[in-house]
Every structure is written in C-alpha cells, then in structure tokens.
Amino acid sequence: MTEESISQDLPTLESRSVFRILDAAANRCREGLRIIEDYVRFHRNEESLSSDLKQLRHDFRNYWKELDPEQLLQNRDTAGDIGTAISTAAENVRASLLDVVAANCKRVEESLRTLEEYSKLISTTAARGFEQLRYRFYGFEQELLLENQRKARIGQASVYFLLTEKTCVLNWQTTAEQAITLGVDVIQLREKELDDRELLARARWLRDATRHSSTLLIINDRPDIALLCDADGVHVGQEELCYGDVRKLLGPQKLIGISTHNMEQAREAVAAGADYVGAGPTFLSETKSFSEFAGLEFLRQMAAEISIPVFAIGGIGQENVEEVAQAGISRIAVCQAISQSQQMGRIIQEMKNILSSGNNREENRV
Ligand SMILES: Cc1ncc(COP(=O)(O)OP(=O)(O)O)c(N)n1
Ligand SMILES: Cc1nc(C(=O)O)sc1CCOP(=O)(O)O
Ligand SMILES: [Mg+2]
User: Which residues belong to any copy of the Thiamine phosphate synthase/TenI domain (predicted)?
Assistant: First the structure.
C-alpha cells in the first residue's frame, strides 16, 4: 500500500465510516480552537498567544487538506449521526470562563488524537502532522490553564509591600515576618546595592518565610534570582528585560509584573501578557525620586481601561489611600507606609478596608 492511497484498499463501508469520523473530528478540533482563540483574544487581550493559536489553526488546515476534504464532506451524515442526540448534563453547564477553556482544550486534544489515528489509513503525512499539533497543543493548554491559576492568585491581592532594608525602622527580617503575619498579599524583595549572593540568600530566606503563608513572593528586577529561589514571580520596569524574554526564563507558572507610567506602556504590558502592572508614581515618594508624576489622573484612566490587576504606587499610605480608591483603583504597592510603620497591623488593615470599599471595586465597574 502506498503512503497516500491506503484508503483505496478499505472496504467501501469502512472507507465511508473513516471519512465520517475524520470529518467530525476535524470539525470538533476547528471549533474548539476557535472557542479558545476567542477567549485569548477578547478576554485575555493577549496578542502573542492569540497569534500562536491562529498559526496552529493554520497548520491544522494544511494537514486537513491532505485528507481529501471533498470526500469528508460528501460522506458527512449529520442526520444519521446517533451522537447528536446523546449528551450529558455536565456537557451543558460551564461554571466559569476557565471551565469553557478547559473543556475545549480536552475537545481539541481528543479530536487531534482521533485525526492522527484514523489518518494513518489515508495519509501518513497528515497522521504525523496531527500528532505534532497535539504535542504543541499540550503546551498551549499548560500555559492557558496555569496562567489562569497564576492570575487568580494575584487577582486576590490588594496590599503589596516593597521590602527595602534601608527604609525599615526594624531589621528587615522582623519587618518581613510582621508584614507576612499581618496579611500583606505580596512582598517584593527590592534591593539595589546587595551583591548577587547576598541578594539570593535574602530571596531564599523570604521564600522560606512566605512558603506556608498566603503572601506571594516577588523579586524586583531579577528573573534569575526569582528562578533560583522559586519565587512566585518577578517585577520588571521599563528599563529591565521585556516581558517575552522574562517569560522565556520563568516559564508559564510564574507571575510577571511590569511598571507603567502612562497608558501606552500599560496597553503594551497587557498585550504582552503581563499578570499585573504597577501604576505610578502617584504621589511624592521618600523611597524613589521622580522628575514627573503620573498622579491620580493616570490611575483614573487605568481603572477605566486596564483589565489586569493594577497596583497604584508612589508615596501611598494611610493619609492618601482614600484618593487612590476614589480614582477607582483597589490595589496598592507601598514601601515606607509599611516599613516605617510603628503600627503595621492597623495600617495594613485600614488600607485594605478603604481599598475594598464599593466604588473602586473592579467587579463594580460597568
Ligand atoms: C509593584 C511595583 N510597581 C512598580 C515598581 C517600580 O519598578 P521599576 O520601575 O523597575 O523601578 P525599581 O523598583 O526597579 O526602582 C516596583 N518595583 N513594583
Ligand atoms: C519603587 C517605586 N516605583 C515607583 C513607580 O512609580 O514606578 S514609586 C516607587 C517607590 C514606592 O515606595 P513608597 O511607597 O515608599 O513611596
Ligand atoms: Mg526595576
């Protein structure tokens, strides 16, 4: 039997069945890919993943053409398909967008396996092609679903603490331990003058201190240190490595935050796939000096447009967090409001209460 004409040796009835199976599997695969692509495009707004999925759909079409689409169509018999009347209760209910995506990931994988197996009767090229697409799609599924888990974790955060030793009134370890115990949602190790070994040792200490807490650990600037200490992610500014390169280093499970100072940078960060953004500087900061301030107006624009978590930053504390909340932002990143505080627990709770007030909550935005 030649590679491309195996089907001519099949009994007619079997050939017809094979074409029906392949036609149904191809439709299931195409439809599942489209559903996932719509989610990435319209909900996640991620250009890179969207174009990767579009390329996979394009490659799928090339292997599908190896199967004699005319034959598939001629042998379609939807009226005679007993499967159209069979469905389970679970198939008709989805609890969340993530459930829709997860269910369609499985639909795509199963249909690619069906195409791979039955194509072996018609075209070895197509069979091998569907096999490779299946392996590629497993990577997409991991990135899609793990990214959702990652985004869910940062999506719950409201108070994010930047830990810099020289700003602490207590020693840095005590400050960190108190902040974690008193409920900061994220702690970021932000040190610019330590040598790499001391920075890594400090990062590992913080990993141990946060491991059994609900506090996420982020490393500022350094994806290498974040990787070595198994941090939850890294935060990079406009001058550090770009999102795509950091994602190559950290893989799909780690959080990547990006600093933004204007709407163009914010849109770029969302399009790249950032898990969250910092937005500032808002007010005069004792920790870092700036020649210009994005201020509250930038926060109002961010609150109105940006779909991923936005952490306002820059000179924010108990005395002005209300203004941040009124601008529509429900998350803050602070350094000295916590590191200089003599009543850390009260400050953290008060800021959380103000940030959780009604008018600035993201879910209340229409
Ligand atoms: C949460 C958060 N937002 C913004 C920044 C600032 O990062 P960057 O612009 O890279 O400046 P440095 O902190 O590196 O001086 C941040 N660190 N965290
Ligand atoms: C590190 C940093 N980045 C900012 C930005 O706007 O990107 S503001 C800032 C300083 C944050 O410290 P504090 O809360 O003590 O002002
Ligand atoms: Mg930086």
Answer: 160-338
CA nearest to 283, candidates 269, 293, 298, 275: 293
- For the segment 295-337, what is each residue's pLDDT rounded down to a tens digit? 999 999 999 999 999 999 999 999 999 999 999 999 999 999 9
**How far lies 118's CA from each of 14, 127, 204, in Å?**
11, 8, 51
Task: For ligand 1, say whether the CB of 44 is within 6 Å of any of its atoms.
Answer: no
Helices (H), the chain: 12-38, 47-64, 69-74, 97-119, 124-155, 172-181, 196-210, 223-228, 243-250, 263-272, 295-305, 321-326, 336-339, 344-355
Q: Are residues 33 and 61 in the same domain?
A: yes
Task: Encode burial over 32-51: b for 16+ CB neighbours within 10 A, e otherwise.
Answer: bbebbbebbbeebbbeebbe
Q: What's the pLDDT tens digit per position in 230-268?
A: 999 999 999 999 999 999 999 888 999 999 999 999 999
ipTM attached to this prediction: 0.99
- Provide the residue range defining the domain that includes 337: 156-365
Q: Binding site annotation covers 315?
A: yes
- Same-domain check for residues 277 and 319: yes
Determine the residue of 159, 162, 191 to mutate for testing ligand 2's pocket, defined as the one with the most ligand atoms within 8 A of the Cβ atom: 162
Is the minimum distance from the CB of 317 to ligand 2 under 6 angstroms? no
The CATH number that applies at residue 267 is 3.20.20.70
The answer to whether the CB of 221 is under 6 A from ligand 1 is yes
Tell whether 99 and 118 lie within a shared domain.
Answer: yes
**Which residue type sits at 224?**
D
**Number of neighbouring beta carbons within 10 Å of residue 211:** 10
The verdict on the CB of residue 157 being under 6 Å from ligand 1 is no
Closest Cα to atom 7, ligand 1: which residue? 237
Whether ligand 1 lies within 6 angstroms of the CB of 190 is answered as: yes
Share of the chain above pLDDT 70, in %: 95
Residue given tokens 């850390």 in the structure block? 344
Pairing assessment for the beta strands 310-313 and 276-279 based on DSSP bridges: parallel
Reported as a single tens digit per residue, the pLDDT across 43-77 is 877 777 888 898 999 999 999 999 989 989 998 98
Q: State yes or no: 81 annotated in a binding site.
A: no
